[in-house]
Amino acid sequence: MNRSPDLRVTLGPLEMKNPVMTASGTFGYGCEFESLVDLNLLGGIVVKGLSLKPMAGNPVPRIAETPAGMLNAIGLANIGVNEFIEKKLPWLRGIDTSVIVNIYGHSTDEYEDLAKAFKGVEGVAALEVNISCPNVEMGGMVFGKDPALSARVTERVVKNTDKPVIVKLTPNVTDIGALARAVEESGADIISLINTLTGMAIDIERRRPKLANVSGGLSGPAIKPVALYQVWQAVNSVKIPVIGIGGIIDYRDALEFLIAGAKAVQVGTANFVNPRATMDIIEGLKGYCIEKGIDDINRIIGSLNI
Ligand SMILES: Cc1cc2nc3c(=O)[nH]c(=O)nc-3n(C[C@H](O)[C@H](O)[C@H](O)COP(=O)(O)O)c2cc1C
Q: Which residues contact 52 (CB under 8 A, 6 or more apart)?
């Protein structure tokens, strides 16, 4: 079979031309990658996490390289929701891809206000609710670690939006299934996971933490097996679609998540190493389907034999 395989995927109310998306915080607002990537070929772009007011983020250094990964404690530096809608979104509307807005609040009220800010706003395919950031003092992972709080945030966002709602889970918990079920029961349309794993690194000459924030979020290939296992557990815990994230570098990594049952994947840290990683992954998925005689990528999703 040499015909181009069908890569389209449907995640509840969200349809995408292929299952390859960029992960929040690793692809700016999309425009930064315009000269490097044909953005129209992407399944989806998830923009940097937005808060109600602009945030400067944490003091530097806020990035440290680790074996097979990196630690970051950016602290959600972002331009704020109003500037995004005014200055970034009009340009993003011209791109033929699903633009997904990642939101972050310091309280349940703020999550509700962020959802309202995008009500009726065109060119936003879905909201991704970050309840899993390890690098900010208030909120973030505080919500995401507790199924009851996660449920409350989800409910408030779902009630106040006209967009599909993706809830992004933290891996820093003992029972990912319980969290996944809590947000599903509260009305989430889709779950995405994982966000970064909390970690730290020390400079032995100065005997100081390598990050000014002391701890940070670990991402990259180092976290892939953990991510894959948690995605598989989530897939087996809920009926709503799951997006797999964590350490995806090439199409083989993406395939592992799809075979485990993720309906789409997000590519994060890989963009820093190879800005065209997403393009290579899309081509690789096509090639794999052709080689195996598979005409529709959906035949691969959840095809794990145990
Ligand atoms: C520098 C950096 C910034 C990030 N910023 C955000 C963010 O604003 N919101 C969010 O939900 N996740 C954020 N993440 C988490 C990623 O979206 C992703 O979940 C995580 O890095 C795991 O995927 P990866 O191993 O492919 O990078 C960030 C990650 C990195 C490395």
A: 80, 81, 105, 110, 113, 114, 117
